[in-house]
Amino acid sequence: MGELTKLRAAPAAKAKRAAPVRKEDLPLGKILAGDCVSAMRKLPDASVDLVFADPPYNLQLGGDLNRPDGSHVDAVTDDWDHFDSFALYDKFTRDWLIEARRVLKPDGALWVIGSYHNIYRVGAILQDLGFWILNDIVWRKTNPMPNFRGTRFTNAHETLLWCSQGEKAKYHFNYRAMKTLNDELQMRSDWVLPICSGGERLKDDTGHKAHPTQKPESLLYRVLLATTEAGDVVLDPFFGTGTTGAVAKRLGRDWIGCERESAYREVATKRIAKELPLDESALKTMQSRKNQPRVAFGAVVESGFLKPGTQVFDKKRRWIAKVRADGSIECGKVTGSIHGVGKDLQGAPSCNGWTFWHYEVDGDVKPVDAARQLYLLAVED
Amino acid sequence: MGELTKLRAAPAAKAKRAAPVRKEDLPLGKILAGDCVSAMRKLPDASVDLVFADPPYNLQLGGDLNRPDGSHVDAVTDDWDHFDSFALYDKFTRDWLIEARRVLKPDGALWVIGSYHNIYRVGAILQDLGFWILNDIVWRKTNPMPNFRGTRFTNAHETLLWCSQGEKAKYHFNYRAMKTLNDELQMRSDWVLPICSGGERLKDDTGHKAHPTQKPESLLYRVLLATTEAGDVVLDPFFGTGTTGAVAKRLGRDWIGCERESAYREVATKRIAKELPLDESALKTMQSRKNQPRVAFGAVVESGFLKPGTQVFDKKRRWIAKVRADGSIECGKVTGSIHGVGKDLQGAPSCNGWTFWHYEVDGDVKPVDAARQLYLLAVED
DNA sequence: GAAGGCAGTGAATCTGAAC
DNA sequence: TGTTCAGATTCACTGCCTT
Fold first, then answer.
1. Strand D: which nucleotides have any atom within 7 A of a protein Cβ?
2. Mean pLDDT computed over B101-118
3. Which of A379, B23, B329, B336 is most buried (most C-beta within 10 Å)?
4. How far are the Cα atoms of A142, A218, A228, A372, B133 from residue A285, in angstroms, in the given order?
5. Shortest Cα distance, chain B CAs vs residue A32, angstroms
6. CATH level 3 topology of A23-61+71-282
7. Which residues, including other chains, have CB under 8 Å from residue B223's CB and lie 6 or more apart?
8. What pLDDT is recorded for position B349?
9. Closest nucleotide to residue A75 (Cα to C1')?
10. What is the mean pLDDT of chain B?
11. Chain C, protein-covered positions (CB within 7 A)
């Protein structure tokens, strides 16, 4: 971070006190061709209310990857995602962030989405440039791709950074709208949303996905609803197939896109043309209810509501097993989950371990489900 | 990031080919006083299996920042100077990460926990030093503090980074134990755990919380269970009230702490003294089949668990092959190992013959893996 | 028509021991 | 150092086809 630190923050658009930009002078509803830095240079200072950016993640993939069933994973191998070094990626990032900063109004905001491959570099650089992080948001995917080789944790989330122009800068946050959207609870920094698939996923003529990393509209929906007003101008420097434009149009926001690839520009143009502004009542029904958390037996053990080493047994005490540290149980040579061991011992097709296994508390015998209820109570506070 | 990028990874402890460090020469179960950089300097190269670090987050919170030598940095909270404090924080971060890297074994791993105030700086710096991010983990708090002023999203998570020593470095991951802990589904990168409160939260004599940022034991439990083995040495450079030590002791891991504040050291010492290790059988976890001894198909045939001449077939009976005396199989003109024949017949990139091929026993159809399990049971006794 | 089986797929830094 | 090959490894959801 050395060099950057010396730069100090460009004072951003703050210094410009010229006449405010007229919306008529902006290329609203247009997708600018070329790389985003050149494209943004055509825009005046302090002219947009929000920048939403989904830059390349700089994934550094090894060889091919196959699923356990032998099928091939269609990975992101496009040239635009490849950088030879962190240094080059950092320069690329700095360049587009500087332009984004110039183009943003003093009370404008920046959103960037990324994964662990790039988001720590992006985050450090935007802080160096003077952006002020308001929240980091975790998009928790309901249906991520599994880790097929069993080598790491399933990479089940991506991260968004929401920033103002500086520590003292103003910004817009529709607190009430977010709270309403979230069943009258404050909207949290973790958002549970499915990935983009099914009918929403755009296909090319051959039926292949039109873009490798299309984002779900629900994500943009929440971003725009939370941090813009109707009539605001939203700029997306990495427009892709135009999710930002489509949702902006639906929500009555103006938009400007930048996109290098003509194929993506064409798909986006057609897509947005079909989009219609949504009426208010439809907006309200788009949010899904919060889903009941599943509780893993391991989580109950981990949290101490049932200690490793505890003996558990079925109601008739035909079998006695011992709880192990990882939430597996052991009964003689049979080990596994509470469900699997109960099933195998009984020779049954299935078994609900929560009600099958019991333990003793102060002389009482209780199903292990009682420990789950204690866990849920503690977690709910 | 300029300067750092040029540094590139110190080759870490890899270069050291000296005699492996003996555990007797390490200050196991001790809390080293002083700042963590000086304390870590007393430890030999390549001597610990895991570093878990919960460094100070205090960037924008009023200048409560300390240099590695323990001296206090004067508060610099005006926005003119906040880059100076970023630079100081970066230097502090780099210093302790470099020592952590030296002390870690080549196949050791690093965990760091942080919030959006510091984690982007930490992440970029550790990448610059050559650490390789394996996952970023989101600790999703079930009971976070609300945002009282309604100005932002409720900050409901913290981030952990899990890193190996480098892109090609080895590391340990107890995949099966994690899958078991999560009810037979892969453990994801988002962990839902309550914050530390209630009886677990340590209090001082006045009933005030003993430490402002005490982490829940469940968090450390999962970290240590996932990425260490019993007997491993865990180092925590920011020991605080010793959550890492307490959980390490419980799980049969050795630990070393560093802590500047004597008050925290005292609380931690008492706390850990009370902790009891789990007995060995409770510590057993589900093992990956990768760790099981390799069994040649020929050995299973040789031992009579699958007789030469037996017909084996895939689940849909598209192909039928015959087992030969040497453990090869024959399907028409295709002959070879169970894996190779399965692969060639399907035209697949690879094939696990143990689960692909089946045989009949008493009218039941079983994968040939069942014969391997019988063989393993017989051999174990 | 309903239900169930089967195939396909998504921002993925995805093996390692033996020779 | 590189090459070979045994063999370990997946979750949620969509959509088409069969029963």
1. 5-15
2. 97
3. B329
4. 19, 12, 20, 33, 39
5. 30
6. Rossmann fold (3.40.50)
7. B52, B111, B160
8. 87
9. C12
10. 89
11. 8-16
More confident residue, A351 or B120: B120
Dist. CA B157–CA B136, nearest whole Å: 12
> Measured between alpha carbons, how far apart are the two ends of chain A, in Å?
41
Q: What is the pLDDT of residue B167?
A: 95
Using CA atoms, how far apart are residues B52 and B217, in angstroms rounded to an integer? 13
Cβ atoms of residues B55 and B122 within 8 Å:
yes
Q: Which residues of B touch A187 (CB under 8 A)?
A: 153-154
- Give the Cβ contact number of residue B255 at 10 Å: 27
The domain limits of chain A are: 23-61+71-282, 297-380
The band of A346, judged by pLDDT with boundaries at 50, 70 and 90, is: confident
Alpha carbon separation from B12 to B33, B218, B233 (Å, rounded)? 25, 31, 18
Q: Specify which residue's alpha carbon is closest to the C1' of nucleotide C8.
A: A71
Residue with tokens 């791709």: A145
pLDDT at A270: 97
Q: How many CB atoms lie within 10 A of CB B225?
A: 23
> Is the shortest CB-to-strand distance from A145 to strand C under 7 Å?
yes
- In terms of C-beta density within 10 A (0-12 exposed, 13-18 middle, 19 or more buried), how is residue B51 classed? buried
Look up residue A332 and give its DSSP letter. Answer: T
Look at A3 and B3 and tell me if their CB atoms are within 8 Å: yes
Inter-chain touch A325–B282, beta carbons under 8 Å: yes
Scan residues 21-60 of chain A and list those with Cβ within 7 Å of strand C.
54-60
Pairing of strands A157-164, A132-141: antiparallel
Q: Between the CA of A7 and the C1' of D14, what is the distance in angstroms?
A: 51
Give the integer Cα–Cα distance in Å for A96 and A99: 5
Instruction: Read off the pTM.
Output: 0.87
Measured over all CA atoms, what is the biggest interatomic distance in chain A, rounded to whole angstroms? 84
Q: Is the CB of A214 under 7 A from strand C?
A: yes
* Optimal mutation site among B4, B5, B345, interface A, most CBs of chain A within 10 A: B5
B291 CB closer than 7 A to any strand D atom: no
Query: What's the confidence (pLDDT) of residue A287?
Result: 34
Strand D at less than 7 A from CB of B290? yes
Q: What share of chain B is helix, strand, coil (3-state, %, to 5)?
A: 35, 20, 45
